[in-house]
Write a structure and sequence with these properties.
Layout lengths: L1 H36 L3 H22 L7 H18 L3 E3 L2 E3 L3 H10 L4 H12 L10 H11 L4 H11 L9 H26 L7 H25 L5 H40 L10 H16 L5 E10 L2 H8 L1 H18 L5 E4 L4 E9 L5 H11 L13 E8 L5 H22 L1
Antiparallel strand pairs: 1-2, 3-5, 3-6, 4-5
Helix pairs in contact: 2-6, 2-8, 3-4, 3-5, 3-10, 4-9, 7-8, 8-9, 9-10, 12-13, 13-14
Length: 432
């Protein structure tokens, strides 16, 4: 009874220590996450350099059109809602991610006064994922959103300067191309500034940027076609919303496919792992042993003589006698107990495998400096005597050892260990 209470106290102490360790780990992760989210000096300078000029430019541009009609206010509100919905739909692909918002921006450029698109875009970007307002650095996040609205300034200025308030027409296609290219130029400048402030290589951003430009070009064409086909009336809204719905459906379908692929991939990994485990002992099976031998030989060949392989082959003694007299269940328990003993005694990083009915292999790749033959041999042999009995039967196994060198390969070392195992068994028989 005292022993049970003592065990309970030890278990409680272990649980308390594990809880304390888990709490310390959680606090450390939280500290590191907060450190990562805290913008450094370069990031703050980059946000100020990109966001503040936009706010100034948008304010100056707003002064050019003091009077806005009720129809323009209503259209701006509806387009803003569409832009908000589009900005919340993200489609991820191998080349990058995109949101189906460019066609809405094109409609803003062509149907609203030049002062409105930048302000509408800024207001929408503020409302998208508003959780940034509760973060420790809301000013930094706000400036980054203002910087993202810079993409509207190029097309607005191009259309304002060269368009002279002309109604949308396909004959103005060179002007529209110039407006789109101005947006791409601003995107590239912003990406460069952002990458420099975050110390990111520009080459890593080339493919995502090209992907975004390609998608914006397609969406801009859809937006221009919708405006021209409807004459700029409110009926343009369903045509602008259709691509958003299509991308949303595709994004959800892709998300389901990704989740299915991840589930199947995990199932394959689990099945692959189970296929390499011995069900009785939890040790690696013969297939995993052969793979470990091949991997060990590759590692040794690539080490230029700095690493060696140590092999131990263990065979459970008296197993046939135990099975015949006490039953196979006791024999299985003896095999499992032998595997547990070897597992505890094997060096960290060594492979333990059940390579036969009552035969185990231990394979350890290490350096010449770390390997001590006597310690390795003694630890495995001691493991056979320092464990509890199985049905009053003491664990007993003959163990053979070999290394490379003198064996010229891992396979040869296994053969030498088998020979040593046979000699150990013969010595036991003669001694008995």
């Amino acid at each position: 009874m005292n022993t049970e209470r003592q065990d309970e106290r030890v278990t409680a102490l272990i649980d308390d220590q594990q809880s304390s360790d888990a709490l310390d780990t959680t606090l450390e992760l939280a500290r590191r996450r907060a450190q990562r989210e805290r913008p450094d000096r370069s990031a703050r300078i980059g946000a100020i350099a990109m966001g503040t000029p936009f706010l100034v430019a948008a304010g100056v541009l707003a002064g050019f059109r003091p009077h806005i009609t009720g129809r323009e206010w209503l259209l701006a509100a509806l387009l803003g809602v569409l832009y908000l919905v589009a900005s919340s739909v993200e489609f991820e692909a191998a080349m990058g991610s995109t949101v189906p918002s460019e066609q809405v921006l094109v409609a803003m450029y062509l149907l609203l006064p030049a002062s409105m698109p930048p302000l509408v875009a800024l207001l929408v970007l503020i409302c998208v994922r508003p959780g940034w307002m509760r973060r420790p650095h809301p000013t930094h996040s706000f400036l980054l959103r203002a910087a993202s609205a810079w993409q509207t300034m190029g097309p607005v200025l191009v259309l304002l300067h060269f368009g002279h308030g002309q109604p949308p027409s396909l004959s103005h296609w060179p002007l529209y191309i110039a407006a789109l290219l101005s947006q791409f130029v601003i995107d590239m400048v912003l990406v460069t500034i952002r990458a420099r402030s975050l110390r990111m290589p520009l080459r890593s951003l080339r493919q995502p940027l090209l992907w975004t430009w390609a998608m914006d070009t397609v969406m801009a064409t859809i937006g221009l076609g919708a405006v021209l086909a409807t004459g700029g009336s409110f009926t343009v809204l369903p045509f602008l919303a259709a691509p958003i719905g299509l991308i949303w459906l595709l994004a959800n379908d892709r998300q389901r496919q990704v989740e299915t692929s991840l589930t199947l991939g995990q199932a394959v990994l689990d099945a692959r792992g189970e296929a390499r485990l011995d069900q009785l002992t939890g040790a690696a099976n013969r297939r995993a042993w052969e793979e470990a031998v091949e991997a060990a030989q590759t590692e040794i060949d690539a080490s230029w003589g700095t690493r060696i392989a140590v092999v131990a082959i263990a065979d459970v003694d008296r197993l046939k006698q135990v099975n015949d007299t006490l039953g196979h269940s006791v024999g299985d328990a003896l095999i499992a107990a032998t595997a547990n003993a070897l597992r505890r005694a094997a060096p960290e990083g060594a492979t333990l495998a059940r390579i036969g009915g009552d035969e185990f292999g231990v394979l350890w790749v290490t350096t010449r400096e770390e390997f001590e033959a006597a310690d390795f041999v003694d630890s495995l042999r001691t493991a056979m005597t320092d464990n509890e009995d199985v049905d009053q039967l003491q664990l007993l196994a003959s163990i053979g050892f070999a290394t490379t060198p003198p064996a010229i390969s891992v396979e040869e070392a296994i053969e030498h260990a088998d020979v040593d195992l046979f000699e150990q068994k013969e010595l036991r028989r003669s001694a008995s």
